[in-house]
Amino acid sequence: MLANVRTGILGGTFDPIHIAHLHAGETALFAADLDRVLLMPAGDPWQKGDRETTSAAQRLEMTRLAVEGTDRFAIDSREIDRDGPTYTIDTLLTFPPDEELFLILGADAALGLPSWHRWEEVLERAGILVVPRPGTDLAAVAATVPEASILDMSALDISSTSIRHLAASGRPYRFLVPSEVHRFIEGNGLYTQV
Ligand code: ATP
Ligand code: MG
């Protein structure tokens, strides 16, 4: 009998995607013996309304560039392709029932899980893999989401916000993103203003 496909889903705004996202995905692939990791850019960034955000098409393109030529990473545009905000549970329910799903979350994102729409159903449908993130207490994550597996990874103090700030102030960030992503940011004049 064939084993079910084991898929990790790493969602985010990816504005821009950076090496901590990719390292988290690879750590999850390895630790949970996944077959593949889907990088899934969010549609409407409705929770981040304070700033003119990069277009969904540009965030998707940077994500595509980041995984080009890699083996077990792929992009998945299903949240961008839907209109308006998407709930994680609705996204999970679009996958075939026999596919084993795992959400890959940074520790900061994991702390918010109990506030998600129909979060109990999220936990029924998907395993939760949490990667450490500076500034978030892993004991708090374990207490908040006891079902989560906390992965062994060195916390990396990198965020899209800090990269946007570095770019806007003309400071170096080149090696915090894949080289093709750096080229895209520069070529399209992204993040010239915070
Ligand atoms: P922003 O600063 O715009 O919020 P971000 O770097 O937090 O960007 P997101 O797109 O918000 O990136 O995050 C997508 C997912 O990746 C979330 O689960 C988040 O916790 C995780 N993540 C992002 N950066 C890191 C990091 N340095 N270490 C661990 N997880 C991370
Ligand atoms: Mg974030």
Percent helix, as a range, is 25-40%
Report the sheet-strand fraction.
Answer: 15-25%
Average pLDDT value?
A: 95
Strands of the largest sheet, in order across it? Answer: 3-2-1-4-5-6
Which spans of ≥5 residues are poorly predicted at pLDDT below 50? none
- Provide the gyration radius in Å: 16 Å
Strand segment tally:
6
Annotation field: number of helices: 9
The structure class reads: alpha/beta
Bound chemical compounds:
adenosine-5'-triphosphate, magnesium ion
| H/E topology pattern | EHEHEHHEHHEHEHH
Q: What composes the largest sheet?
A: 6 strands, parallel
Distance between the termini: 53 Å
- The shape, in one word, is globular
Please explain how this structure is put together.
This protein is α/β, with parallel strands linked by helices. Helix content is 37%, strand content 16%. The chain has a 6-stranded parallel β-sheet, sandwiched between helices. Strand 1, helix 1 (19-31) and strand 2 (36-41) form a beta-alpha-beta unit. Helix 2 runs antiparallel to helix 9 (179-187). It is globular, with a radius of gyration of 16 Å. The mean pLDDT is 95.
